[in-house]
């Protein structure tokens, strides 16, 4: 059975890789993102439908649901990297990160839920957390808090929507995407961060996308409520003496 998957954040480094892999596997796609030109180009490449808009606009989710129609899966690959010291974070910073990462994810599921419940193809949702939700890093107060909420949302929705809809999340470490380009522009800093991972490199979009596609597949039909770390071992391992 050909599945139809909606991807929010489809033009991002991870979202676009997820889209390409799903299309290669035969899935039909509905892509959603802010950048209309990039979105139209990707949709043309993949033969997909699309909706342009911003996840901070509550009405956008309903528009996507209406245009997507039948849906068998949902990926919310939208996030922020707002790294500031505690003294430099404002209430607006916290609210903006929470809105994009956590509230947007909840509203996306809410809007697509009627269609997901009608699916006969093992409907599944994949959200995106972060290593920073489970391990403390300086300058990560706002994004760590927001991604911690995604973890809570994942298990709460998994419980509420069982047994019909599965809900899991992927929690990456730093990955080479356009969103992280500012941090990785300094080669020494990038090398230092890479060395902090037991596998001695940064993540690539393909690493993260592979996990997301796996969680949407029938191979994970007995998995729900899980936050899967794809992080080069950084969240669990210490290889130094």
From TrEMBL:
It comes from the Bacteria. Residues 3-173 form the Ketoreductase domain. Pfam families: adh_short_C2. Keywords: Oxidoreductase. InterPro entries: KR_dom (IPR057326), NAD(P)-bd_dom_sf (IPR036291), SDR_DHRS6-like (IPR051122), SDR_fam (IPR002347). The keyword Oxidoreductase applies. The keyword Oxidoreductase applies. One of its GO terms (molecular function) is oxidoreductase activity. PANTHER family: DIHYDROANTICAPSIN 7-DEHYDROGENASE. Belongs to the short-chain dehydrogenases/reductases (SDR) family. This is Ketoreductase domain-containing protein. It comes from Spirochaeta africana (strain ATCC 700263 / DSM 8902 / Z-7692).
